Amino acid sequence: MKAKIIVIGDAPLVMGFKLAGIDNTITATDKTIQTELEKTLENKEYGIIITSEVMLNKVDWRLKRKLSTIAYPVVIPMPDYSGKSTEGDEIRTLIKRALGFDLAAKK
C-alpha cells in the first residue's frame, strides 16, 4: 500500500497545498489542531503529515514529544507565510529518522 500525504493547518497552508495538487487536507484552528493530529496518527494510510509549525507549537507537550520521537508517519512542520522557522527539523533529518539511515551520506 502506498502511503499518502496529508496537510493539516490553517487556511493559507491548506489552500497552498491544494493548489499544488494535494487532495488530503484538513483546515484546523488552534483549538482543533491537537484533535486533528491525534486522529490522523491513528490512520496508518498517511506516511507524511505536513502541518503548520506555529500551530504545532500550541499542542500539548505530550503530543509534541510523541511526534518528535516517532519514525512513521513523518511530520513536517512548515513555517507560516512570514517564512521564519522557529524550530522545525530539516527534511533530511526527518527522512533519516523515518528510514533509520542517511540517504545523502557518502560511503
Keywords:
single chain; alpha/beta; Rossmann fold; 4-stranded parallel beta sheet; 4 strands; ATP synthesis; membrane; ATP binding; ion transport
Q: Would you summarize the structure shown here?
A:
This protein has 107 residues and is α/β, with parallel strands linked by helices. It has helices at 11-19, 33-42, 53-56, 61-69, 91-99; strands at residues 4-9, 25-27, 46-52, 74-78. One of its GO terms (biological process) is proton motive force-driven plasma membrane ATP synthesis.
Give the uncertain stretches in residue-range form: none
How large a portion of the residues is in β-strands, by DSSP E? 15-25%
Tally the structural domains.
1
* Alpha-beta content class: alpha/beta
Going by CATH, the homologous superfamily would be ATPase, V1 complex, subunit F
User: What letter string, H or E per element, gives the SSE order?
Assistant: EHEHEHHEH
Taken from the alpha-carbon principal axes, the silhouette is globular
Compute the number of helices. 5
Please state the CA-atom Rg, rounded to the nearest Å: 14 Å
**Main sheet makeup:** 4 strands, parallel
Average pLDDT score? 81
The CATH architecture designation is 3-Layer(aba) Sandwich
Helix proportion: 25-40%
How is the CATH topology named?
Rossmann fold
CATH class: Alpha Beta
Biggest β-sheet: strands ordered side by side in the sheet: 2-1-3-4
Between the first and last Cα atoms, what is the distance in angstroms?
31 Å
- The strand count comes to 4
